[in-house]
Amino acid sequence: xxxxxxxxxxxxxxxxxxxxxxxxxxxxxxxxxxxxxxxxxxxxxxxxxxxxxxxxxxxxxxxxxxxxxxxxxxxxxxxxxxxxxxxxxxxxxxxxxxxxxxxxxxxxxxxxxxxxxxxxxxxxxxxxxxxxx
Length: 133
Known about the structure:
By secondary structure, this protein is of the alpha+beta class. It has a single domain (16-121), classed as GSPII I/J protein-like (Pantoate--beta-alanine Ligase, Chain: A,domain 2, 2-Layer Sandwich), CATH 3.30.1300.30. It is 38% helix and 28% strand. The chain is built from 1 helix and 4 strands; from the N terminus they run H-E-E-E-E. The longest helix is centred in the first third of the chain and has 51 residues, at 11-61. The radius of gyration is 30 Å and the shape is rod-shaped. The protein starts with 10 loop residues before the first helix and ends in a 12-residue tail after the last strand. 8% of the residues are buried. The mean pLDDT is 87. The chain crosses the membrane at residues 6-29.
């Protein structure tokens, strides 16, 4: 071969180069897709965590927490995709309960997206009217 005929790339070299660039681009796009999916999942969890805190604060402030479980949705906050349930769990100490609020997807209420827990003391009911005679 003369030096004039070896100035460019061969067809095999070009094909190998294109395949390597294609593999690199595919890997980069998959990584970007995975990163985007992780971002969406984290944003959803953060949003549900905020909903859980806000709902538990509301339930405690309005006195809706008793000793029985309650549940509902967030339709009053314009969120129709999520639901919540509050578990009231005895702690083993008299009048002390663990409150566990779970936020779930409305279609999948078994798997919590966000969960928040706190303790609540319920003073015992007294049998006296409180007057000293």
